[in-house]
């Protein structure tokens, strides 16, 4: 394979690995802050135990998220140096803002939270974890704004002299329609991941403790399960609405992505509307119409309704989109339609794996309603099965987002074809005589192995501390302990 193909695989692998940890960190930090708030407000021991228990799991995940994310910063400059040169002054702005504000806040106050048990006033210590929760979500916003610029380069123009993209409005770039829509959908996803994680682990322990006739311990975990389930339900409702909004926005701003996601090869006749295809195989090849696609189940007009709340609304197919891009970019040789099958199926797998979280929420709320406990082995097993499913769904969502903008690394604004900033992936990588395929092979294999080792350690540590459960050997700080700076500084976990 040539260097560009390897560079794309390398970046794809590191991104998917990194995104295993990101949504859990974003969603779990506020939930842990909420658990600690309940403890500070009520003084009840069970809230303290739950805070410490899930705090351990959060810290393991946070550490791995940081380690796997750092590599991506270097990849922009090393394997995609032409991209960095073209939009570096724009793309670097939100990354710098994220590092100088959000990352410093979360890293500083996470240290305060870790070492501050029994040494700080309870209110101050509680504020530190809320600041971590705020900063993780602020960090997510900056990163998503940078990514949204690659999908929809608002607030920038092409300098005809230098041939580079230059920012015209930081506000337009940070708060574009796509940035806001993407942030809403991603944060909703993060809370679904975190809610499933907390509820799944707590429900498993409820079943285990109930079957061991340890009702007091089961009641503690039931409180944790309740918080996770409520968060899961609220986030799930938000995810439905944000997903619909995201589809509406992308149909208008990135029609090629959505046409590929629905396998819409031919623009439907006026007044007919675009169907939703449940399953399909094939590709929307140029000049072949629908002959290259084999559709299994179709629901007439549903795609148009999902995109515009009108079952007969016009939606462009790949044939019309290709013609419009050909007119705007007459010298363009690359196919402007992303790979149809990866885009089509990643979109559906994203939704399909999310169903497990919905089922866990429904089953868990019914089983634990009204203060009840459950000894159902089936519920305990399903809680464990459901744990990885939102992680997989989130990964497929990210794959859909990134593959769906191919062949562009900076997608031109659809309403401004030919004039807005744009860059093909094949134009954004480092020159082949500077970064060779051999070098990329070595680093790709090396990074993949390192990430695999880290993922194994992450799983083993999560399983170890989950199986250990809540321990009673951790003394609960009393109000008299607060602000006792004479205590030795020790790592809390």
What pattern of helices and strands is seen along the backbone?
Answer: HHHHEEHHHHEEHHHHHEEHH
Uncertain segments: none
**Major beta-sheet overview:** 2 strands, antiparallel
**Total strand segments:** 6
Q: Can you give the helix content as a percent range?
A: 55-70%
Describe the structure in your own words.
The structure is a single chain. This protein is mainly alpha-helical and 493 residues long. It has 15 helices and six strands. Strand 1 and strand 2 form a beta hairpin. Helix 1 (3-42) runs antiparallel to helix 2 and helix 6 runs antiparallel to helix 12. It is globular, with a radius of gyration of 24 Å. 47% of the residues are buried.
């Amino acid at each position: 394979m040539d260097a560009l193909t390897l560079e794309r695989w390398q970046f794809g692998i590191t991104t998917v690995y990194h995104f295993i940890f990101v949504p859990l960190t974003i969603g779990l930090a506020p939930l842990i802050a909420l658990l600690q708030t309940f403890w500070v407000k009520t003084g009840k021991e069970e809230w303290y135990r739950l805070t410490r228990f899930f705090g351990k799991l959060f810290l393991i995940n946070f550490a791995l998220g940081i380690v796997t994310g750092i590599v991506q910063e270097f990849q922009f400059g090393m394997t995609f140096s032409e991209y960095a040169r073209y939009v570096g002054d724009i793309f670097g702005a939100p990354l710098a803002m994220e590092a100088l504000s959000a990352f410093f806040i979360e890293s500083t106050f996470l240290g305060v939270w870790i070492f501050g048990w029994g040494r700080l006033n309870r209110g101050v210590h509680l504020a530190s974890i809320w600041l971590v929760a705020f900063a993780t979500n602020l960090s997510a916003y900056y990163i998503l704004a940078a990514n949204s610029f690659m999908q929809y380069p608002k607030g920038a123009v092409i300098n005809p002299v230098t041939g580079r993209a230059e920012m015209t409005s930081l506000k337009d770039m940070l708060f574009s329609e796509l940035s806001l829509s993407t942030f809403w959908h991603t944060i909703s996803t993060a809370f679904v991941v975190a809610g499933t994680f907390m509820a799944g682990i707590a429900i498993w322990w409820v079943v285990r403790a109930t079957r061991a006739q340890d009702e007091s311990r089961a009641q503690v975990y039931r409180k944790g399960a309740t918080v996770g389930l409520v968060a899961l339900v609220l986030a799930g409702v938000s995810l439905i609405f944000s997903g619909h909004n995201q589809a509406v926005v992308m149909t208008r701003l990135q029609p090629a992505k959505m046409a590929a996601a629905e396998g819409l090869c031919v623009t439907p006749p006026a007044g007919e509307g675009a169907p939703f295809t449940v399953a399909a195989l094939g590709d929307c090849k140029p000049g072949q119409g629908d002959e290259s696609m084999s559709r299994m189940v179709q629901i007439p007009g549903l795609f148009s309704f999902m995109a515009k709340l009108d079952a007969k609304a016009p939606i462009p197919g790949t044939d019309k989109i290709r013609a419009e891009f050909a007119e705007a970019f007459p010298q363009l040789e690359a196919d402007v339609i992303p790979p149809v099958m990866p885009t089509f199926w990643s979109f559906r797998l994203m939704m399909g794996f999310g169903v497990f979280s919905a089922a866990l929420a429904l089953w868990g709320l019914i089983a634990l309603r009204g203060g009840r406990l459950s000894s159902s082995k089936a519920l305990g097993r399903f809680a464990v099965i459901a744990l990885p499913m939102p992680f997989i769904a989130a990964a497929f969502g990210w794959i859909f987002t990134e593959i769906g903008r191919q062949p562009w690394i900076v997608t031109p604004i659809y309403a401004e074809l030919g004039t807005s900033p744009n860059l093909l992936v094949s134009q954004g990588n480092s020159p082949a005589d500077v970064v060779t395929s051999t070098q990329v092979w070595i680093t790709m294999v090396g990074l993949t192995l390192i990430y695999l080792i880290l993922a194994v350690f992450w799983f083993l540590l999560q399983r170890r501390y989950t199986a250990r459960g809540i321990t009673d050997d951790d003394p609960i700080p009393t109000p008299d302990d607060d602000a006792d700076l004479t205590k030795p500084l020790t790592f809390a976990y």
